[in-house]
Amino acid sequence: MRPTKRPIVAIIDYGLGNLFSIQKACEHVGLPAIITSDEEQIIDADCVILPGVGAFGDAMDALIRLNLVAPIREFAASDKPVLGICLGLQLLFSRSHEFGTHRGLDIIQGEVVRLPNCQHSQSALKVPHVGWNRMYLPDKRQFAKADMRCPELWHHTLLEGIENGAFMYFVHSYVVVPQNSSQTLTETEYGETQFCSGVRKGNIYGFQFHPERSGPTGLMIYKNLYLLIKKVTGEITNV
Amino acid sequence: MKSEYLRIIPRLDIKGPNLVKGIHFEGLRVLGKPERFARFYYENGADELLYQDAVASLYGRNSLLEIIKKTSSEIFIPLCVGGGLRSIDDIREVLRAGADKVAINSAAVKRPELIKEASRAFGSSTILVSIEAIKKTDGTYEAYIDYGRESTGVDAVNWAQHAVNLGAGELLVTSIDQEGTGAGFDLELINKIAPAVTVPVIACGGCGNLTHIVKAVSHGNADAICIASILHYYVVQNLQPFGEDADFEVEGNIEFLQSKKQFKRVNPSKINDIKASLNNQGISCRI
Q1: Percent of chain B with pLDDT over 90
Q2: Is B268 within the bounds of a domain?
């Protein structure tokens, strides 16, 4: 018998990642979320969240071992929302150069490369990049810093209502480089490096930072995800 | 090497159901309910939280799980938990309760391979190695375990490097000599480790005022700051640390709280006020 309350979000469990914080953030905004590696539950869900902490190669090996590559790709080909977080964002890409070259899910075309140890006020910055940093509208940083309003590019996205330059929590050593730069939703500066910290391709989103660990601003992303799911499932029509 | 925005991390030492604070990890005073302090810090600009079980290492119990569960369902910043974690299973249990990172000390010193296994199992960024050191008469630093009670003969600076090589994602470096004194961080200890390793170093132990934080960054090269007394005593003086129905029927040493005295060694402050002052002095913080 099918449970009466259908899970809405499937948080993919492949043995790595901050699954519980994500589940709690979902619950906080009223989104029931299950942690699963079951193909049927994933395909049946209304939204998939791909979390991840650790090495790209190990994560892809785990997804292959659990036969999850095809279901995730199939889900992403539907209109339903997909959210990749941190390593989960990187896994959406074609390939990564972390400890050798590894093929990714290839849902978003592009590469994953190491964050350079850049020079900054005479001292190199540490990699991994750990801590809070700002996300900006891409390519318009100088203008963006003067204008904190939520940029137009973010309207009707998971970033609706969030101010330009908002602080988010990062932990990573690698960054994504989308082939199609119009898929870049946000950029972040670390020392002199400017990297893509958020992508969007239709209803597929990915963030390098952890919205579930980024305080009330991060939770707005989950609230927007809730609205997007409702919109896609037809429960509400106007977002 | 520095990170861009300085992180300020409140450290909450927990004994049973209570938040405690000692000096050199000894003479633990009960200050209130950890959840109340955590909530206040979350709403006042904490960048992360550190929960340290003050007794787990000694008695082999882990009473933190309930507190972790409660905290992580209402506080959406990174939560690191340490104290008495001896195995991959212990770490998994704490992460399942809602922690984002774990701090390991005693078990890692006794069996350094644990760092490698844990960082492989959960990712380096999840594994923070906590180094608690005492300065020796010859000027070198020795790592201590079991909440500062047990010497190891291990050189703290060499151990820091080794821990990073084994996969530690961050280091929490605490001076036991300075801890709880409000006399300032051990800048020499921090500066021996922070510039020498590739991962972020969190300075801990001894912070009594804003100047100490500035020095930990400018002289110690710390990437993050872990503080306790100056924040906790603000809450004790200005809020109700046990909640409104406090009856003081609590376990532990509550003489200090009942005395309603002030703790004179530190300058009690709020995180956002500290951060505003740091920003004014050119040290970038998230506000």
Answers
A1: 72
A2: yes
- Residue B276, domain member (yes or no): yes
- Predicted ipTM of the assembly: 0.92
| Among the listed residues A183, A151, A169, the one whose alpha carbon sits nearest the alpha carbon of residue A217 | A169
Q: Residue B257 sits in which domain range?
A: 7-280
Asked about A235 being catalytic, the answer comes back as no
Q: Which of B48, B53, B90, B132 is catalytic?
A: B132
Cβ contact A130–B223 (<8 Å): yes
- Identify which of B4, B98, B126 has the shortest CB distance to residue A125: B4
User: Which one is catalytic: A26, A47, A86, A196?
Assistant: A86
Residue B182 lies in a domain: yes
Domains for chain A: give ranges and CATH numbers: 9-232 (3.40.50.880)
Give the pLDDT band (50/70/90) at residue B144.
Answer: very high
- Selecting from A24, A53, A55 the residue whose C-beta is nearest the C-beta of B73 gives A24
pLDDT tens per residue, range A177-216 = 999 999 999 999 998 889 999 999 999 999 999 999 999 9
Task: Please give the residue of chain B at the shortest CA–CA distance from A52.
Answer: B123
Give residue-wise pLDDT tens across range A149-177: 888 999 999 999 999 999 999 999 999 99
Domain assignment of residue B92, yes or no: yes
Number of domains in chain B: 1
User: From the candidates A102, A129, A172, A210, which is the catalytic residue?
Assistant: A210
> Is pLDDT of B58 > 60?
no
A129 is catalytic: no
pLDDT (mean) for A223-229: 96
CB contact under 8 A, A216 and B286: no
Instruction: Give the one of A20, A130, A214 whose C-beta lies nearest to B96's C-beta.
Output: A20
